[in-house]
Design goal:
Elements: H1 2-27, H2 32-57, H3 64-89, H4 95-116, H5 123-150
Helix pairs in contact: 1-2, 1-3, 2-3, 3-4, 4-5
Length: 168
């Protein structure tokens, strides 16, 4: 029963952390202080979830170096995922910012995920995957740029969530 509760708590902490990280990253240009606080809380939650998952649930005994690696990789993974999900959710609010944010998030999250999960790959596989993810990110950037440049949507920065005085 304890495992069920622990794993549920980790999932809640992970998803709350990602949600807050997503909002903080993508909306920061509109209110740096407010969204930096939200981003920091989100990253903190995701980090707590990662450490709890490894130490309590998986019963890992981490050295100082392993703990530092877990912290760095958890934070970069959360940032990368947050860039993607926040960018998708708030494309209209800041399309030019998001056209860079999503591809960068794809690269950061993929690399962090790969290192965090300690996949054993040959040098050729690593190079192929790295080049592949760079190509995917570049294609996503081109597609997003086409939307930003050619779209008929009202792309006034601020989008729908800031209409009627909200956020200003």
């Amino acid at each position: 029963m304890k495992q069920v509760i622990y794993k549920y708590l980790v999932y809640i902490i992970y998803f709350l952390g990602i949600g807050m990280t997503s909002s903080g990253i993508v909306l920061m240009p509109f209110n740096i202080i407010r969204y930096s606080i939200i981003l920091s809380i989100g990253l903190g939650l995701f980090l707590i979830g990662s450490v709890f998952n490894e130490v309590v649930i998986n019963k890992q005994h981490l050295s100082l170096l392993e703990t530092i690696k877990l912290i760095i990789l958890s934070l970069t993974l959360a940032m990368g995922i947050g860039m993607i999900s926040g960018g998708i959710a708030h494309f209209k609010e800041s399309p030019r910012y998001v056209m860079y944010l999503i591809p960068l998030g794809i690269v950061i999250s993929f690399i962090s995920f790969t290192f965090k999960n300690k996949f054993e790959l040959t040098k050729k596989e690593k190079l192929t995957m790295f080049l592949g993810i760079i190509i995917v990110a570049f294609i996503v950037y081109i597609i997003l740029r086409m939307f930003v440049v050619n779209t008929t949507m009202n792309m006034t920065p601020g989008g729908d969530i800031f209409k009627n005085g909200h956020g200003h």
